[in-house]
Specification:
With 266 residues, the protein is α/β, with parallel strands linked by helices. Helix content is 37%, strand content 22%. It has 2 domains: 183 residues, 3-Layer(aba) Sandwich (Rossmann fold), CATH 3.40.50; 70 residues, no CATH class. It is globular, with a radius of gyration of 18 Å. GO terms for molecular function: ATP binding; ATP hydrolysis activity.
Length: 266
């Protein structure tokens, strides 16, 4: 990450309202190229809605979003994907009846750029991008399996492979290790590190604090649609508002011991 580089993503007073509910309330932030930005907060804080707005799934109620110097505020999800932003979801998003390879090939075919005449035949470039993404995610040996038959870990890896097949500049990961055991979390953690090593900028939401704080170069904590903390990972547990509204005293103590070098599992 180059601290002096222009931000790859800028959000200025971005909001999303559902009637009187301010799910995202005037959120402003910048993300530097190559950064891993971690977002935490209690359920209902507005984290996923914020992802939905930035990635074009939900239209914003106000504010402006710029990606690589381009205004994408009103752009649709397909246009934003073609511009270089990919994402995964909390719930396992896949074509259940297709194979692992077919799912990733669809992402490569339609996610990399707009096609005026899409057709039904995969291009050689799409097949190559899909094959590379499958190997990157460790799913090459399972390419022939039906997506609906995969266990939880492989479903999450499939979403990551699909995102990588679009050749993104930036990826939004929504709870990539939710429901996984410790060994599986470590596997995904290493995968995210390899994504960052390729120069991909990453924004991730996660409740597993060990994962979130270990990977992130900077952390935001959201509550009631607003940012209540922004700073380095080792300062999260020291913020009284974060401890009171999200972590609790027990988790805060474990995180402090973790950053002090003592064994701890948050």
């Amino acid at each position: 990450m180059n601290p002096g580089a222009a931000p790859i993503l800028t959000c200025n007073a971005v909001s999303r309202h559902f009637g009187s509910l301010r799910a995202v309330d005037a959120v402003s932030l910048q993300v530097a190229p190559g950064e891993v930005l971690g977002i935490g907060g209690p359920n209902g804080a507005g984290k996923t809605t914020f992802f939905d707005v930035v990635t074009g799934i939900t239209a914003p109620s106000g504010g402006r979003i710029d990606f690589m110097g381009r205004d994408i505020t009103e752009a649709g999800a397909d246009e934003i994907c073609h511009a270089g932003i990919a994402r995964t979801f909390q719930l396992n998003a896949a074509f259940e009846h297709l194979t692992v390879a077919e799912n990733v090939a669809v992402a490569a075919q339609f996610g990399r750029h707009a096609r005026r005449f899409p057709g039904f035949r995969l291009s050689a470039a799409s097949r190559a991008a899909a094959a590379e993404a499958l190997e990157f995610a460790g799913l090459g040996p399972k390419a022939h399996l039906r997506a609906g038959d995969l266990p939880v870990l492989d479903r999450k890896l499939l979403m990551i492979a699909g995102a990588m097949a679009t050749e993104p500049r930036m990826i939004f990961l929504d709870e990539p290790v939710g429901g996984l055991n410790s060994a599986e979390i470590d596997l995904v953690q290493e995968l995210v590190r390899r994504m960052q090593a390729r120069g991909i900028t990453i924004v991730l939401i996660e409740h597993v604090m060990r994962f979130l704080l270990t990977l992130s170069t900077r952390v935001l904590i959201m509550h009631h649609g607003q940012i209540i903390f922004e700073g380095p990972p080792d300062r999260v547990a020291e913020d009284e508002t974060v401890v009171e509204t999200y972590l609790g005293q027990g988790a805060a103590r474990r995180l402090k011991r973790h950053f002090a070098g003592a064994p701890a599992h948050a």
